[in-house]
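We emphasize that the prediction below concerns an isolated chain of 113 residues; any contacts that depend on oligomerization or on bound cofactors are therefore not represented. The input was used exactly as deposited, without trimming of termini.
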Amino acid sequence: MQTTTPPVFTFQDFRPDRLIDSLSRYGIWLDSGLTELNSYENRVYQFTDENRTRYVVKFYRPARWDEAQIREEHDLTLTLAQAGLPVAAPLAFDGDTLLSQDGYLFALFPSVG
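Result of the prediction step, given as a C-alpha cell string:
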C-alpha cells in the first residue's frame, strides 16, 4: 500500500486576478485602493468598489479552519452586530456570508476604519 502526503498549502498561487474574479462573481467590482492588510493566517485586503464603497475581503487559509468553524465566527459576529455592538459583520450574498471561488473560502465585510 502506497501512501502519499498531501502538499502543504501556501498562498503562492493566490494572485490579484483571482481576488478580482472572486469579487466580480458576486457583483463587486474593484475600482481602487487595493491594500493588503496584516494577517498571519489569511489573506485580507481593503479596497474601494466602483460606487466608492469601501470593503474588506478575507480569504481563509485552506486546511486551517473548516466551514463550520468559519460559520460559527460569522454567526457570532452577526449576533453581536444585531445586539448593537460595534463590529464589522460579514455581508451576505444570496443569504450566505461564506463565499467560495476556486477552492478558496472568503467573506466580504464593510470597511469601518
